[in-house]
Design goal:
The protein is an all-alpha fold and 35 residues long. The chain has 1 helix and no strands.
């Protein structure tokens, strides 16, 4: 990351990462459930 990034961008980035992590978790659980 270069220079100073506005905190709102960092926050949005963190939320996005969190969402994709939860989505990945859900997909993994679905795979296990459906074999």
């Amino acid at each position: 990351m270069q220079g100073v990034v506005p905190s709102r961008f960092l926050l949005a980035d963190a939320e996005e990462d969190d969402e994709s992590a939860q989505r990945s978790l859900r997909v993994a659980e679905d795979r296990e459930a459906h074999g």
